Amino acid sequence: MASQDALYEEAAGEYGAALERLAGSYEFDRDKCRDLLQDIHLAIWRSFEGFAGNCSLRTWVYRVAHNVAASHVVRHQRAGKRPLISLDDVDDLTVADDSGDAFDRQQSLERLREFIQLLKPIERQVILLYLEGTDAASIAEITGISAGNVATKIHRIKKILAGRFGRGDRHEK
Amino acid sequence: MKNDDVAALWRAQNGEGFRMSREEIRNRIETMNRKMRRRTFDGYLVFATMTIVLVGWVFIDRNRLEGIGAVLSIIGFGYLAWQMRANRFRSYSSDASDTLEHLRRELARQRDFHGGSRFWWRLLFIVPGGPVFFAGFAQAHPEVIRIIRFEVISFVVFALAAIPLNMWMARRYQKQIDALARLQEEK
Description:
Structural class of chain B: mainly alpha
CATH architecture of the largest domain in chain A: Orthogonal Bundle
Shape of chain B: elongated
Low-confidence stretches of chain B: none
Number of domains of chain B: 1
Distance between the termini of chain B: 31 Å
Oligomer: heterodimer
Strand content of chain A: under 5%
Low-confidence stretches of chain A: 167-173
Largest interface: A-B, 66 and 43 residues
């Protein structure tokens, strides 16, 4: 088994960008986001002390990262900042966006981040993993949600994204 | 924009290529430890100040009831400080279990803080000290008995109000735990 430092280097190289996107979707504030990202990296580095290779590096890294982020949400939820919602509570036909220029893409990303921040931690995790291109079986393995529930949630996410971010997918079904 | 485009747009955010060197990791751990030591010190400072004030009053008044109340209050607030430290002053863990399990543990910890035996112990430790101390204070200073009566009533009302409030919070956490359990059930 590779050393703790070597595993961390591999994880940071392979999943560093995904971890930055993850932290950015949990925290809008730049300084807090940076803090959260450091906490995630630190937790990942520490976790490799106990990594026995029972699951893939990706599963391990995402689990640790999402657990740190989920704890972050629970702590802030306790402070009574705002109620978090479920995917089932989301209206899927809000503002359509079918333009493709850079400004609108940036706006779409901002809206997507805002939307993700409204969600409960576990649903946030599913949508983030979906956006990172993770398949349903891996999402189930990382989150612990049953495969059937993951499939339902992905179906719901697709519907919401299609409704919120363009009309293309509405014609796809 | 199609779903695939949204996902591609999401993944196109490359970030700064953030990673931590060994030195930065060591510094971060030291910063976190320093923060925890500082919070612990602040907690001890508040506890020590409260103890000095209570013991000071007992020393001035030399009233037995006040003395018993002061000792009970010191024990009660010491217990509260210990519980809060155990519940809150933790750095983020490096837990690699699946998120449902991790969240369930986090929520169960919050639920037990508000609604489990830890809450009742907290109440049992804190509540008797105040009224006993105030009763002794009223004995020593009968001229302010009306103010003391008001303070005792306020203290008891707050203590009683804490019961439904904490039970409500514990139920809220339990509902979230139940919702997580449903996600594990196969359809």
